[in-house]
Amino acid sequence: MILSDPAAERAVLAGVCKYGTEAYYDVADIINENTFTVDSNSVIYTCVKRLIEQDDTRIIDVASVLSSAKEIGLDTFFANNNELSHLGAVLKFPVAFDNIRKFGAKIRKLQIARMMYDQLEETKEKYLHIKGDEPISHILGMAEESIFDFTSLLNDQDDAPELLFGDLDEYLIDRAENRVDQIGIPTGFNKYDFAIGGGLRKGTVNVIGARTKVGKSLIGLNMGFDIAKRKIPVLYLDTEMTKKDQQNRGGAMSSFNNHAKSSINEIETGKFADNPFQKTSILELAKELKNIPFYHKNIGGRAFEDQISIMRRWLAKTVGLNAEGKANDCVIVYDYLKLMEASELAKTDLKEFQLLGFMMTSLHNFALRYEIPIVSFIQLNRDGITKESTDAASGSDRIMWLCSNFTIYKEKSDEEIAQDGVSNGNRKLVPIISRHGEGLSGGDYINVMMQGAYAKLIEGPTAQELANNRIEEELNDEEDIAF
Q1: Which of 40, 44, 114, 370 is most enclosed, with most CB atoms within 10 A?
Q2: Is residue 441 a contact partner of residue 464, using CB atoms and an 8 Å limit?
Q3: pTM of the model
Q4: Per-residue pLDDT tens for 63-89?
Q5: pLDDT tens digits, residue range 340-353?
Q6: Domain range for 388
């Protein structure tokens, strides 16, 4: 049975040794010591893993690997000159950084194939004992059981069911002694945070859908800016706009907050400098913003797998991972979840809804794997979304299955603006699904004022709050008349 690729194994090891931490965390989630079929490769990976995870070694060479081997009791392995020569050959093996993940995925697939082969071999033996008088369900069930058992081999964690309330008392004591204002990371939109269950929770994908040109990207920019100002790292993955585009928007938005009020156009053309006060204020503001942890990356045209890789590297290199491999506090803004061009889609065997499901599943699994919140935007095909009509989200219910909350962002109608008052906004946020929060009552929405020239969004009261205020004012007026 040939289910191995020694050259690919060597390439992965060479890449990790050459590029260090960044390369290691780029493959550590898909491979382990058992992924390697060559014993020498497995031992080298074990040593390198210890160097990076425990010693935080930056330079990996023969001496550091031998030192690591001694620490874990494998030093006698390299007493053999052939093994020492193999280590030297690995360290000299040429490999490009961008190919490491691809080789890692290849040897992981081969490992899975080996495991599945062994699993099915055992099942074949069981079928030899079939007499022919067993129910068909039993015969088919033997194969199904084999597959289910196999999935457990892919998970290194203990998946045994636990008593749901077994540690409830300890949990409640911990909550009582470590109180927080809200569970998730604040977005700067307080009513939205409340509706979705207390901000952006770890391990969730929070989806906001909108029609084109409504301003969905501005929500991501405003949220990201507010979060980053709290010293929480934010990665803004942008499928459409460049860094300069977002800098112009960010400069205008922050100037609005700072009362200098320079528009996007004034920032981009440099006309803000015509006013000495604006010029001084903007330049001072730029210095203040210089080091806030708000990161941007244009990912337009890149394969979705590459986009996931960018996210993973950012977590490992910039945010940091704890001992369990979970990320420190951070937020990823994905703007936006969309399908590839028709010409590219034709090259795959997937239908649109299947591809969208794959992308959403990948984001969901990524958020769970690293316990981070992701804010993802999607473009809606049409307007008029209601709680009974959520299928308009790019034609797929899969988003609804996997997101923690789903919110529509849309323009308010003329009637709504007249009813709520012009000062209470020209846009609205309508939470459709909220698995953790209270959401809003039917027909209610959060008012938002979009100052497009300044890329600024201001959250206002809900429509229900405004209606209650009007009722209260009318009652007060009636009391005044009575007196």
Answers
A1: 44
A2: yes
A3: 0.71
A4: 999 999 999 999 899 998 999 999 999
A5: 444 444 445 555 55
A6: 190-470
